[in-house]
Structures are given as structure tokens and as C-alpha cells.
Amino acid sequence: MTAATIKRPRRSYAWLLLVPAGIWYLVFFLIPSFFPLVFSFAQSDPTGGVILKDFSLANYARFLDCNFLAWNEFGECIYLKVFTQTIVFALFGTLGCLLLAYPLAYFLATRVGKWRITLLVLIIIPFWTSFLIRTYAWVVLLADQGLINSFLVNLGLIADDARIPMLYNPFAVYLGIVYNYLPLMIFPLYVSLERLDKSLLEASKDLGADRFATFRQVTLPLTAPGLFTGILLTFIPLTGEYIVPAILGGSKTLLMGNLVANQFLQSRDWSFGSASSVMLILILVAFILIWYRASEGQEVEVV
């Protein structure tokens, strides 16, 4: 065997495909995330910005501190209360999207036939409009002099001086959240349901299972990946939501996104705003890791 006949192993350059995405991830995510982390240990300049000296955990201690108010014998953890309220809104908003999205996605995947594409386009159309404009549209609908109250007054169902307060409260925030984030839950569920092997459903029915048992034992486990994906796509951005509570909630509904924005733009307390955002990121990372382990176990069980 001559040297010319010896085949040298080919060098793989597949890793080069990761370079563009890696550079984008480094420049637009890792480096910007590094600054809030550093700022969270620094001191805020009263005129804006930070003073990069005397690093400490004071901002984190302030976030976790409970201020005992004179009129409240139980005390109140102000910032933890905002954080807890944010998680509650995100959980209930995600649950609301799930309860509406799963039946709709199931209907689109199994029942509509030739109208499927048309209905999917109708769901996508709101994404062609600005998120801000879609949120402001609910102000026109929910205001005391808005379309819904005026319609009820014209029907004689309510008096003109007894209009229903539907704006600037948690109800309006939940409504805006579910409306704006519902498509993010629908599409992963639709993909999972559309790819579901229908012969498995027929086999379940042939073996004597009713519709509920078939859904619980076959449909739901096999669509779990889409379910987990939809929940993550909805829950994660909800924890940092700023526009919906600012427009529909007014000053009565304060979430973490509003708290961080107020610290940077109004209070000019960049260090504490950075610490608040870092705390939120850490909780989200923990949630994602737990959810990933749960979804991984679910996928193994299904296979």
C-alpha cells in the first residue's frame, strides 16, 4: 500500500456553522447581560448611571428587605410583593392562554379540513399590527365611555351612571395578556396535534377507551412537547411584561417590568434596577431548568 492510497480523515468544519449565531449571541445577549450584573453590585449615581466602586450586596438586600409599616402589623415586603404578583400574573396568564389555546388548536388540527389555512391566517393577522396598538385598542373597548359600556347602556342593561369599571384593574391586565400571548400558545400545540398519528386514536377507541380516556392516555402525552414549548414561550415573556400593565393596569397594577423601568427612567436608580432584573433572570433560569427536566422526563415516558 503506497502513501497515495492512504486515506486521510477529513477535517470537519461543521462547527463554523455556529460562528454567526455564536457572535450574535455574544454581542447581543451575553455582553449586554454582563453590564446589569456588574451594575447590580455598584452604587447608583443620583444624576443617573452608576458609581463603579465599593461593590456590595446592598441592592439585593434591599430587594429582599421587608419594610414594616406603622399601619400594617404584619409588615409588607414591597419588592417581593411585586415579584410575587408578577409570577402570579404570569402563571394565571399562561393558564388562561392554555385553556383557550388547546381546544382551538385541537379544532384546527382535527376538525376544520379545507378551512384550516384560512383560520390560521386569521390567528396570525394580529401579529401584523404593533403590540402597542393592539393593547391600546382594549382601552377603547374597556373604558367607562368605551364601546362595551356604551353598548350595554344602549341596550338598557346598565344605567348611564353605573357603567362597569373594566379598565385599570387586574381584570384588564389579564385580558390584555391572554389576548396578546394566545397565538404563542396556539402554534406549538397545533403543530403537535397536527403531527399526531390518528391511527393511535382509532386503536384506543377500538380497545374500548372513551373519548376522555383517549385524550388523557394518548393525545395529551403525545402532545406534551408542544404543551411544554407553548408554556415556556408564554410564561417567560410574561414575567417581564411592561406594556400591558402600564396601559391597561394603570398605577394599580405594578409588575417587575414596570418596576425595573421605573428604577431606570424615573428614580434613576440604575443599580437597584439592575439587581431587580438579575433576580428575575435567576428565578426564570431556575424555572426553565426545572421545566426542562420535567419535559425531558415526559418525553422519555411517551417514547
Question: The CATH topology, please?
Answer: MetI-like fold
Structural class: mainly alpha
Mean pLDDT, as a whole number? 83
Task: Spell the H/E element sequence.
Answer: HEEHHHHHHHHHHHH
The total number of structural domains is 1
Based on CA atoms alone, the radius of gyration comes out at 25 Å
Give a topology summary.
Elements: H1 19-39, E1 43-44, E2 50-51, H2 58-64, H3 78-110, H4 116-124, H5 131-142, H6 147-155, H7 170-194, H8 198-206, H9 211-222, H10 224-239, H11 243-248, H12 256-265, H13 270-302
Antiparallel strand pairs: 1-2
Task: Please give a structural write-up.
- This protein has a single domain (37-302), classed as MetI-like (MetI-like fold), CATH 1.10.3720.
- α3 (78-110) crosses α7 and α8 packs antiparallel against α9 (211-222).
- The chain has 303 residues and is mostly helical.
- The chain has helices at 19-39, 58-64, 78-110, 116-124, 131-142, 147-155, 170-194, 198-206, 211-222, 224-239, 243-248, 256-265, 270-302; strands spanning 43-44, 50-51.
- The two termini are 48 Å apart.
- A two-stranded antiparallel sheet has the order 1-2.
Q: Can you summarize this structure?
A:
This protein has 303 residues and is an all-alpha fold. Helices cover 67% and strands 1% of the residues. The chain has helices at 19-39, 58-64, 78-110, 116-124, 131-142, 147-155, 170-194, 198-206, 211-222, 224-239, 243-248, 256-265, 270-302, and strands at residues 43-44, 50-51.
